[in-house]
Amino acid sequence: MSVELDVFVGNTTIMDKEVYQLWLNGYTVNDAVKVRIEGGVMEECEASAEVLLSDTMDQFRTFQMCERLLQNPAKLANQLLFQIPPDRQAMLIERYYAFDDAFVREVLGKKLSKGTKKDLDDVSAKTGITLKSCRRQFDNFKRVFKVVEELKGPLVENIKQHFLLPDQLARDYAAIVFFANNRFETGKKKLQYLTFQDFAFCAGQLINYWTVGAVDNMVEDMDVDLDKEFLQDLKDLKILITDKDLLDQHKSLVCVALRGKTKVFNEMEANFKNLSRGLVNIAAKLTNTKDVRDFFIDLVEKFIEPCKSDKWTSTDVNLYLTHYTNSAHILDTFKHQTVWTRYMGVIKSCILRMYHE
Amino acid sequence: MPGKLKAKIVAGRHLPVMDRASDLTDAFVEVKFGNTTFKTDVYPKSLNPQWNSEWFKFEVDDEDLQDEPLQITVLDHDTYSANDAIGKVYIDIDPLLSSEAATVISGWFPIYDTIHGIRGEINVLVKVDLFNDLNRFRQSSCGVKFFCTTSIPRCYRAVMVHGFVEELVVNEDPEYQWIDRIRTPRASNEARQRLISLMSGELQRKIGLKVLEMGGNAVVGYLQCFDLEGESGLVVRAIGTACTLDKISNTYAPASAINPCNSSPSKDTKDSPQAVPSALGCRSTHSSPVHSASSRLSQGFSVSVPTLLFAGMKHRHRSSEGPRARQCRAGFGEEAPGVPLSSGPPTPLRAQTFSSFSPSKSYSRQSSSSDTELSLTPKTARICLSPSSPTLQSKSSPIPTTKALRSTTPPPLHVSQSDTAMLRKSVSFSEDLLLAASGMGSGGSAGKEAGPLKALLRQQTQSALEQREFPFFTLTSFPAGFLLHVGGVVSARSVKLLDRIHNPALGNTRSYKLLDWNSFTADEPETRDAWWEEIRQEIKSHAKALGCHAVVGYSESTSICEEVCILSASGTAAVLSSRFMQDGALDMDHRLSRQQAPVFTSGTEKGEGDMGSSASLGFEDLAPPGCGFCHIPYDELNMPFPAQLTYCHCCRRFKVPDVLFTTIDLPTEANVTGKGCLIQARLCRTKKKAQGEGNATAISNLLPFLEYELHTQLMNKLKLRSMNALFGLRIQISIGENMLLGLASATGVYLTPLPSPGGIQIAGKTPSDITYEQHISNMQKKINDTIAKNKELYEVNPPKLFTLDPEAFRCINTELVEEVIGSPIPEPRQRSRLFRSHSESSDEVSELDLSHGKKDAFVLEIDDTDAVEDIHSLLTDAPTPPGFYSCNTEIMPGIYNWTSALQMFTSVRVFRLSNVNLTNQGLNKVFNDLCENLLKSLYFKLRSMVPCCLCHLNFTVAVPEDELIQVAVTAVAMSFDKEQTLENGRQSCDKTLMKAITENEEQLQFPLELTAESSSNPLSSAKGLSEVSGALPSARVSSLEKASPLPEGRSRSLRSNRSYAGGSVAVVKMTPLSFIPGTKIIKYLGIINMFFIRETTSLREEGGVSGFLHSFIAEVFAMVRAHVAALGGNAVVSYSMKECVFMENPNKNQAQCLINVSGDAVIFVRESELEATPPQPQSASTQTSSSGEGT
Questions:
Q1: Average pLDDT over chain B, rounded to whole?
Q2: Are residues B1114 and A51, on separate chains, in Cβ contact within 8 Å?
Q3: Most A CBs within 10 Å, among B1110, B1115, B1123, B1133, to test the A interface
Q4: Is the pLDDT of residue B759 over 80?
Q5: ipTM of the complex as predicted
Q6: Which residues of B332-368 are buried (b: 16+ CB within 10 A; e: fewer)?
Q7: Membrane-spanning regions, if any (chain A) (predicted)?
Q8: Which terminus in chain A has less CB density within 10 A, N or C?
Q9: B48-64 burial, b if ≥16 CB within 10 A, otherwise e?
Q10: Could B911 and A4 be called an inter-chain contact, meaning their C-beta atoms sit closer than 8 Å?
């Protein structure tokens, strides 16, 4: 004896947030029921396990039917099949596109290809997130990527508009798309300490200042590709380290400015040339795609790690970078002020964000 | 009125990808009406095509306009192969044909494919230009409004209630045609959908014609059903109540609307001989055609319900009865229905209608049939249900003749005589009776003579009603003052064999084009009509036996399994006021003049003469509105069945039964104590598999037991909840190959005028055994506890509630009331003593006491396992979780402060019985658990709406296959404001009144002088209340009309603003009720009646049976909403799912489902938007319109 068929359809589609989350997390119906029982719904509502099972199955089915629409959120608003109040729609979409930080750290910067998708079981095993959930998140990344790839206009705006996501989530997706497109290396051991939000912040900086969109806002891919001309121009910064005079001059300016203001002055003074070479070399190499990928690892190796080993505080770093940037403007023979500002502005905020004490 | 139908295809969106190569679609659209087809251009390579076509114009007959749907097919153009269909949209243009409904259909419709479901949407614009054409031979009935709502629609007023209309059309089912073997499933499904759409259209048109002929302009309580008889065909039938309605907000509409289309056609038909041979001329004399009784074998069966009197089986042979009936009729010749109205010269046959109402006649007929025909193969048993109450009385007469019934009526309390013949067990309740078909004997008629007032009344209304062949009303709630008395439930069932009758006709006469039922000469189509007619006669005679001349809350249904079909009809016997009825002799001019002056004219000014007025003065005036309907309509000295009568606890002047069962909604004016609750009796009986006649006989044999047990269960559960009346009783019997299912649902309430029910006592058979006694006393204790708990839960009888009784103000003076408050349970003695001081008839008082004493004697005897089971099931019925209430009627007594939060839902479960060898008990338990679990699931699902009430819980059971039980529920959950429900009796009493008043106002839109009146004088306010929807005195009406000129066309402006922020889809509310709390319905846009088929050949891929059905139901909702939105509406009221036939074949990965839904599309506006303060007539209208914009 068994229940062969069991459906419940409301004129207004009934969805329980909690069950939705369980579904999103990729639980099976039975696991979800267990979680719900532990959560105490039964006592609250005098329900039996049977009732809970029926309800869970029913909602899972509803979500599954909605999934097609959620993959194209704009459709959700003007489809006729489910009558869902607008605030609910927003909730559904937002949660569907939400992702786990642990997951995104694994995939960030990887090519959103079938190959990567195949490796998701490893990711799942590593992060403890169900494979189903991993796939959903991965597919979301890929879907957003595919859609915005071909669109003109600002990345974040496009994402907001096409996927009806709230601002913060749209920014995160912009970062994911940006990372995926430029294939930034984020998985190395040295980068493990960085959170997704660190990278998302950096991505925001790069998008805002280093892409084509920063200068021209109606180009395809404007926010996804770095500004090639700018990258070319960065080569000119090499003069700061190749010209011995300039390097010394720069160093003395910074030392003058910092003397007495920091406890790590000596280390700074000793390391100045190394640090400066590191930063300028990063800039100079960015025309190579390969080096673009290593951008974050370079920052860590060439700058953050040396500072760390000398026990700089964030304030020290901030102070140093501020004066390092500003002093260059005073150098008479240094002609590339605009490029320098554009470059160092981003570098500074990225480093500060990445500099965890 | 031929017309020009214009359609424009604007755009499509979300189309499916039809071309894999490009991932796009080259879509175009075919628009078809009748035999004319237009095409749009191909819009290449797009999933969101913009056709923006020209206006396609169809010049058509209005007959076609009514019958045919506009058929829109979206296709994908393919250069090399055949074009692929994407899907279709059928648009019923009927709403455009009535001047008062919608004027344009415009909006996005889901494109539906029977295999793939919804595939994108299409934006369509449809208009109709109707020409006025006074063609006297016309067969169309444009302009007649149809409402599913079983009460007078909210923004209308009933000028006249004409009576019963029915019609049915048959055809061959395309699914069973030879051609079906070579066509695709899609083609079959579409053929079927289209055919049913056509048949519904035709049916509606024909019913419309009858209405016009009767002088009405609307059908209320329109109930359309399909019988999928399989091989033997497809029957689409409908019943309804013809009315003349007046729009409250528009003074001019009625006259103009009614005159041209209503009155003239009927006149035309009358004078024109040509009309006679036409389809319509033939059948419709009055509301219901008279058919000659043809001789046919039928298996019928009738039981009267509460007291099950059951006559065993009779073989009814129509032919033998026919002549007798006709003879009887002759005497009544003068009353022949509708003589003045009848169109065309009556044919001889027609003159001999069966509508003979005289009780003696029908009884004699029945009794003779039982006598003489018993010896024949037992084919018919009849059950007539009358609402009665639950005293189990075992009858000692061993032989199942019904005649024995009346004679043995031991005092109701004892149960103990063990009866030998199980059949003989009859339950007799106190006031309702049940009449066994033969049981009434001549005594029934004798009884009528008593009680001069009543008799008078009866005769008088009868004069109006007897003119009708079937004085039936599908309405379940009535304009106040219309319903005078309620007798009880009457029902009849009949078991028929389908193939026998059908087969001969099948071979040659039928083609698969639509058959015109009326012009069809073969006797086959007549069969179905005759079947129903027979049942209706049965019902009518039951009603008669209950001293009633009308049946209200009437409905019909069927259950089909293979070739066996059970036809069921049930209703509530009632005495109606003649106020809204037109007597048959009225001629056209009279009627016309009345319509032009839409005032309530009824009884007094009409031909009924003095009877009419005397009725109102004699009876109604004395009966306070709150309890009048409970007073017995039959004669107490000569009751047809044993019943306990007591004096009405409200007015103390008239007798009331101790239990009342009805199929109607709780009258708004009813005095109710506490809250109500859903009561269900569930029963499952195994049956041997059998074929043909053997099967039919087996089923006939089982039915009475089923009916009896259902009734007992209902009674027990009612007692357990300390209630004394059932409303909305619906008993459904479903047949399967190897079992019968019975499900009775009703809403139990405590009617203040009725005596308080006694408890339940358990008696054991072997008192000597001590452990057994202990067991018994344990059970007794449990039962007593449950009763006490229920009393609390439903607030039945908390002392203060007694003051609820408005009659208290009237009949008992204030000190008395206080006294009563003191005692928790109104103690009969005390009250009667009080009463005595006011009443002259002290004898009767002592009688009253006596009966009270007896009342406690409801005893359950545990003499067998069955009884133990019964008691167990009593106790295992889980109470609703806190915060939940449930009922199957429209309104829940005791809850008035609804919020506007509502959630309509449909839930379906199919249960597989894996163990084939289940016993009856096992089956019962399974079935019971299935229903209980379903309810529990609903409560859980809807827990976020607490406190809330599930209203109009409508269960439908079916046995789709051998071991499957299917239960489908449609209901609405409505939240209410908890605060106020906790208020104590006194306040809630006031509130009730106030609320009722405001509701009243809401309905009227404006309070007018009602408010003033009511505040000063509770009684008159109560009366005023009851005037609600229909019966406003003319003075009020006219002021109303002046006061509320809702600009027509305003509704248009509503549309643009309807959509919510964020989305482009308008919200459409759906509810099975006739209203939406907190809102006012300002316009009815037309009836929604849709039939869909969905099939899949990839069941697993669609998520199995649940996934498949889930998406189908969601799709049906979506299509209903889209149609409503396109009509400019924002809600569907009186929504119901009539049919949900689900078939699966998991082995082939296939499933098919048919769903039929209906409802009324409306525009509502929120009251809060209307105005925050009580409206002043003048300002109100302006506010209304301005707030309308915001909706």
A1: 67
A2: no
A3: B1110
A4: no
A5: 0.88
A6: beebbbbbebbbbebeeebbbbbbbbbbbbbbbbbbe
A7: none
A8: C
A9: ebebebeebebebbbbb
A10: yes
